[in-house]
Each structure stands twice: as C-alpha cells, then as structure tokens.
Amino acid sequence: LEEDAALIEVLATLPSDLIEKTRATFVLLTGEDLVEKIVAKTSEQDGYIFSNYWQLAMKQLLVDPVDLWCQALQDAMDGLGTDEDTLTALVCTIPEEFRDSIHQRYKERKGQSLLAHIKSETSFNYQKVLLAQATTPALARAQALNGAMVGLGTDEGQLIRIVTACDRGERLEIMEVYERAYNKLLVEHIDSEISGDFKKTMHAIFTTEESEYDLDADCQALKEAMEGWGTDEEALIKLVCSKTKQQMRDIRQRFEETEGRKLVDWVESETSGYFQDALLGLIRSPIDALCYGVRDCIKGFGTDDTGLITLVTHLPEFKRLALIKRYYELFQRDVLADIRNDTSGDYQKALLACVRPPPAVWASTLKSAMKGLGTADSLLINFLCIAKDHMDEVREIFDKENSTPLYKWIEGECSGDYKRVLVALSLRSSADRVDMAPIYWAQRCADALYDVTTLKTLLTSLPAVVLRRAGDIYKAVYGDSLAEGIKKKCEEGRGFSFFTDYWKITMQRLLELPVGVRAIGLNDAMKGWGTDEFTLTALICTVPENMHKDVQEEYERRFGRKLVEHVESETSFNYKKLLKYATLSKTESRCTALHGAMAGWGTDEKQLIRIITFATKKERELIRTKYSEMFGKDLIEHIESETSGLFKACMVALLESSQPQESPDYEADCDALIDAMEGRGDDQDAIVRILAEKTPDQVERLAEAFAGKAGVGLAEKLDDEASNWYDGIFSNNDFRETIRYLMRPPAERLAHAVRYCIQGFGTDDTGLITCCVHLPERQRAELIETYARVFDRDVLEDIANDTSGDYKDALLACVRPPVHTYCKALRSSMKGLGTADELLINWMCIAKDRMDEVRAEFEAIYEGENLESWIDGDCSGDYKDTLLRVARRPCLKFPGVEAAVTAQAPPTRGEAIVRFNKTFNDLCRKKKGNPGEDLFIPEEAQQEMGCAFMYWGARSSVAPNLDIAGLWDMTNALGFPPADDGPDLRATFREWDYSGSEEIEWNDFVKEMFTRVNDPGHYEADPLPEVVS
Known about the structure:
Blueprint: H1 3-13, H2 19-30, H3 34-41, H4 52-60, H5 65-77, H6 84-91, H7 99-110, H8 114-121, H9 124-134, H10 137-149, H11 156-165, H12 168-182, H13 186-193, H14 196-207, H15 215-226, H16 233-241, H17 245-259, H18 263-270, H19 273-283, H20 286-298, H21 305-312, H22 317-331, H23 335-342, H24 345-355, H25 358-370, H26 377-387, H27 391-401, H28 406-413, H29 416-426, H30 438-449, H31 451-461, H32 464-478, H33 482-490, H34 501-510, H35 514-526, H36 533-540, H37 548-559, H38 563-570, H39 573-583, H40 586-598, H41 605-614, H42 617-631, H43 635-642, H44 645-656, H45 666-677, H46 684-692, H47 696-710, H48 714-719, H49 733-743, H50 746-758, H51 765-772, H52 777-791, H53 795-802, H54 805-815, H55 818-830, H56 837-846, H57 851-861, H58 867-874, H59 877-887, H60 909-929, H61 939-953, H62 964-974, H63 983-992, H64 1002-1013, H65 1016-1019
C-alpha cells in the first residue's frame, strides 16, 4: 500500500544472515533477480530520483555479508595508496564466523589471497597485527609458538602466554594445526626447547587428560604440596595442569574459603621463574591472566610487541570489554591509554582496534567518513551496512562520543532518497531482530516491486490474527486503518481500481478474525425472509469448543441480541433443541438438559446418568454452580427430590465427589464389590463411594484388579443380564446402569449411550442430542472409531437411518469432522442457479486456515471434482482471483489448528518463552497503567502468548492441550511455577482447568492469562525475563 517507503524499510531491516537466502527465494518467487529489479526501479520517474550513491546503498544492502566484507577490504587496499584507517577497522573487527569464507571469497574475487594483499600493503609491527588478526586463531597461535622457538633462544614468556590462555579444546586444535604447518609435533618441539619443572609443566598442560575431581580433596592436596619444608613440584603440576578453567575457578574460591589466603599468592611464594609464570597463568582466571600478560608486555623499559600482539588479537567482544574493565580493577589504569602511551602510528591504531569492541571501532570509522571536507560516501555506505546488525550499540557509542546523534550527521551530509535509506539504517533497532523466514523477506520486497498483485496474495495467505495485528501496526505508522488503506489503493487508478461489491466484501472478510466471520455468517443465515437452515447448522455445529463464548459475545456486540434467542426464534422441534444446546456453552447445555430431565411429569433417569457420568469431576463442579445461576435451585437438592434409594445416593455421590482418591485400596474395593454382587455386602454408601470417587484411570486399574480376583471383567459382569442379583444393591437397574457407565472408558461410555438412544423402537432424541453436541474434533473421531469397533456398525449411518430433515443434518454435522461440513457448505453455496456469493465468501474465510484439508476432503466427497474448478466456473475478475488464492492457500499443520489456534508452536523452547514473556509483560504494563479496570486480552495477544501453550501442548499426552506434566514444564519455563510438583501442582491444574475436561484447553489457558494479567501479584511484580540464557 505504501510501496515507496516500504522498499527502504525492508532493505534497512533485513538481517545480514538472511540476505543470500532472501535473494535466492526472490528468484524462486518472481523469476527475477532482486538487485536487477531494484536497479530497474531506479529508472522509473514516479517519485524515485536516485543518485548513484542511493543505487549503491540499495545494492550494498542486498550484498551477501561475506562479499560486503571482501569488497570493503579490497576498496581499502586498491588504487593509489592504502586507506590504513579503514583497513585497520575492517581487519580488526572481522566476525569469526565469516573469517574462512572471507579468505576463500577474497582469493576468488581478487586472484590474490587476503593475507598476501595485506602483506604487500603494510609493514613492521602494523603488518604483524593485521596478519595475526586476519589469520585463523589456531594458525595464528601456532605461528606465534613456532616463532617463539625457532632461531637463537626461546621466548618462554610467549610460550606461557599462548598455552595458558587456551582451553583444552583450543590446545588440541593448535596441536593439529602446528603438525600440519611445520611437520613436527608441538609437544616434542616445546620439550626440546625448555627444561626442568617448567618443561614438566608445559608437557603436562598438553598431555594430562581431563578427569573427575574432588574439590575439597584437591584443595587439601594443593595445601599439602606447598606447606612445610620444600614444595612438592610434581604434585603441584599434576593438580594444576589437570583442571579445566571452570574447575580451577571452583578451586580458587574453595581454597581461599578454607585456607584464608589466595591460592595464587601461596603458589607465587613457593615457586619461581618460568615454572611460576606457567602455574600462575593456569590458576588465574582467563581474564586476569590476560590482564597480567598485557601489563607485563607494556610496563617497564620498552614494549614486548610480539607478546602484546599475541595477547590482543582474536579477542571476542566479551573478552575485549572484560579486559578493559578488569585491567582497571587490577591496576587502576586504563588499558587503552597504556597502549596509546606505549605505541604509535598505525600500529597503535590497530592494537586499539583489537581491544575496543567492534561497534566502537565502527562508530569511529563512520565519524571519519563524514568529517572534514566532503563525505566518503562509499566508506559510509560500507560501514553502515557492516554495522547494521549492531546498530543500537554503534548509535549509542557514536552519540556518546559526539555532540550530534548519528542520524543528524547523516542528514547534514546526504540528501534525497540516499539520505532516507542511510537514516533508516542508522535508526535501525538491532536489538529486536525481525526474525522472519527468507520467503517473507522476499515477499516483502515483492510487495514494493509488484505492489498491485501482492495485496491479493497477502490478504489470502496470512492468518486473520496476523492481519489484525498488522492492521494495528499499520494504523500506528500511517494513521489510517488497513481497510482505509485498501480503499485508497483502489482509487490510485493503476489497474487496480475496479472492484466488484463481492470483491470488496471478500477483502473485508479476510481482515476479520474467525470469531467475527462466524458471527456475521450466523446473522446472514437468519436475517431477512426465511432461514438458511443448512448454513445455520453448519456454522453452529462446527464452532470450535474454545470459541463458543467468544462467538456468543461477538454476536450480541455486533447485532444487539443473544445468539441463542435468535436461533430459537428461527427453528423448531428437535432441530431447535439441538441448535440451542450446541449454541450454549457446554456447561449451560448440560444444565439445560438436566433441568429438562427432571421438569414436568416423571424423571428421565437415563438422561441424568448420561450427563453426570460423562462429566469429569471438575465439569460436575461447574455444572452445579451454573445450574444454581440458571434455575435458582441447588442441583443436588433437585436430584434428591426427583430420585430415590441407591440411584439417588449414587448421583449425589458423583456430584459431591470433587477430589480423586489419593491412594485407593483396590483389593479391598474388589472384595466389597464381589460381596455386594453376591448379596453379602450391606454398606451401600461404601459401594457407591468406591466408584464415585475414582477418576477414569483409577476405575481402569480397579477393573484390572477385579478381573484378576474374580476371573471375569467387572463391566462384563454388570452387562450379564442373566446374573442373579438377589436382593442386593445391584438389583436396582438404574444404579447398575450408572455403574456400567462408570466402568467403561470415556470413549466407550459415549458410544454405548449413542447406541442406546438409537436402537429399538423409537429414538431417544433428547439423549442423542446430549451425546452429540459439544464434541471436540478428537472425540468425534473417537466416537466414530469406537462405535464401529464395539458394535460393528457405522454411527453416521445409524443416525441418518433413525432421523430426518434438518435435525438429521445437524446431528451428522455434530459428529462428522468440521472439514467435511465445510466442504458441503462450500459446494452448496455454488450449486444450482447462481452463486450465493456472500455465503461462499464466509465459508472460504472460515475454512482458510484448514484449506489443505478442505481441498482433500472436497475431492474425496465429490469424486472427480475439486474446489478450484467450482470457483473458477462460478466467479470472475479480481473476486475470482482472490477466492482461488484462498483455495490454493498452503497451510502449516500443527496440533491445535483444529481448535482455531493460529499460534504455531515455535521451533525452540527459548523462542516460546521469550515471545510469551514479552507479550505478558506488555499486558501487565498496560494493566498497571490503569489498575481500576479489567484488561481484556486482544485476540492477537492471546495468539502470541499461545505460542507457549502450543509448544508445551505439542509435547503433551493430550496434544494440543496440556496435561499436568505439560503444565508443570510450561509454568517452570515461563517463571511462575507451582510451589511443588505434588499437591500444589494438582491444585494449580484444577484452577487452570476452567472447562473441567481434565485437560488444559486453549480457552482455559486464555482465561488463566486474563486472571493473571489482572492480578496485582503479577502486574505489580518484576517483569518476566525477556532473554533466555
């Protein structure tokens, strides 16, 4: 929509490591080269007035980072004279990850190695610094070690500095490189050059294997090696040389704690010479050893240039910063000032560039490019592009060292679009990496270069929640809503201004969130003359379970009336009852069904059994609470007034049982059940409690124990109608039926209930409706599979044969996978005379995030037909093109997509934590700013926090939902875990389980986040960490 500004914004924020992949992806996406396309764009006189430097800046932003470094290095050395300042800044800040590639690419481009070119353009100590810094660390150290031993005499200090500064892995690498470079073993060469305890120490450093160590015992052994008369040098060597850097850190701390003096001081007092220097280099922390080494090279008369070069080259950024800080703490001196005072010229600048952090070096180079007469534009462009991924640090250092901010310097030195892109680079936020796959960066470039067709692609390919979130950002940036921006685009008169009404409607629907599309579709199905029963059925019976409340609230907000009341006014008989139950929340529908089972003449005990045994313990709690709200009476009291005897006792026990037994005695329970079945047991309450207080898992273990003890399964025993139940408690049919249900796994419980409602003369419609509504997609599949396994029948065929009309269609839509219903609704909107376009648009938008499943199911249902061909034959123009793009839309598949969750699980645990914590912290800040009102979490924030739910849910035994182990792992990772993994975890799980399903579902997660964001214990607390260590 704003393609001119977008092109600058995209190229200025593209991460360096994605440039090559983005360019390759752009070719795959468009068939054209991105750089060539941008150069061609510069020739268009539509507001782009490009200077040569603007073109260069645009091209350099798309250069592979390795090529960028090679070009900059070559620019610094080619031509008349060498730009030593630039060469220094480049060589001394080469990223370690690019080093090998730069050497290879440089030789390919130049026909000369980088080292050879540097050597030909430099001299003396300056040359030594650059060659050492440009060489790989292992080879540079191997060369320095060789230099310390060849010729007359041995530089023992150099040997010590290099060897003690390395860890075990680095020494092994140096040994391999040394052997390849000089055809001799490093250890043997060192042994041949030195002697005594120093030789033993150096030999041990290379040959001693890392092993387990006893901290206290080793500290004691070190003490014993040094106290008393004489020093046990061999023990000292063995103890010190066998330790890793981390182990030595622990020993230093423990030794000082136990002995009251520092280990380094004691060793210094007991040893001398190079032997002492080597031991101290190993005992000191790596940074302390580096500081002492640098100080030794500088202090006194003359400078040990070879040692200084060896120490300061190849320092990673954290060591550069640590050296500057620790050097001052140890010696109360500024290491940079000491280097300046002891060296001069280009050599001095190179040493300083090796010690200063790269962003500081780049900031100084940028200043040099702009100060004085004229601007060194190529240099300015190169270093802004090199520094772009660290621009926050560069900007901070530049602003601190100069009186004018970096972007202000650029504004004063440049103009036009060239200025715009460099300013954008200088203001880039490198701390917040825009981490998108290359395809999205390539597409964003295409947005600006192919802006007309891109709009259709974006609206059809992105999830609605992404478009909504992008719309908020769009409005913040441009001041218009996304819809207004699209409208303006239509009026540009660039071949994109002719919109049909249906095309406009499609655009609007694609910007709606799924809840909004469903609410609009439901109203469309009922408004005006007559009701579109097929559409109404399909919409209500495919609402994801987590979306029911949201749809009801959105419907009332948009249309000023309750959805359930509107549905009741437009339907009748069993069809009306089913849609009413399906429209209500699961808890409300169960309460309504229970009340119906007891209202009027007689009580429907079978309905009571179904509803109460199907519910989990938490769901029964929710039902009791909601029943009182809806009907003004206590559910248990109502049941007690309508039932009697053991059946009443069983129903009440089930409703009152809110906690599972902690440690059931299955053997005693089996004995009590056997006695009751054989007419011996008379403790009726105890028998009821045996089953009422158990979870399905505990009941399953009870059944296994019963079969082992009685020789017959408990469920089979209860199903045996020929059994003589005497006058015992199992003689009550309703009680026995209740126990039968409790003994079955939940999936078989549902299958038996459906079969009971269908078989025989007449259909128990109320029971069948209760069984079929509010089945999540997983339970629908389980019902179809379990029914076929248990009864060798097709549940869908049985329902179809036993019912008719809209009622039949609604029952089938409640049991079939939603995708099947989407396909029927889409085809229905296009068949016959004319196309129901608004209906087609609604269904395409609803099915958008599962379009791959819809395509496959459409072809499976209607053999020889496909969705695209229907759309192609029924629509035209931009409207057709847009719907075809939706129909062809690729969909990422992940657990939870069937529940309308669009937050795909991130690829890493760290990303899940950071994305959740950033969003949660942002919501807490908003709440803290307005503590007097509840903060409602917008859909886009729900989905962003949902990345954590999806990450741990995908690893759960009940994916995409969370089990208790998943909740423990997630809350620990995010920073608000229960107090323990026992009682408090179970209590926390019950608190989160708002749905009562004994799984933490998407809606449960969102409700808990609402609770926590509005809890002062969270929004007043310290923010959650936004960086994962």
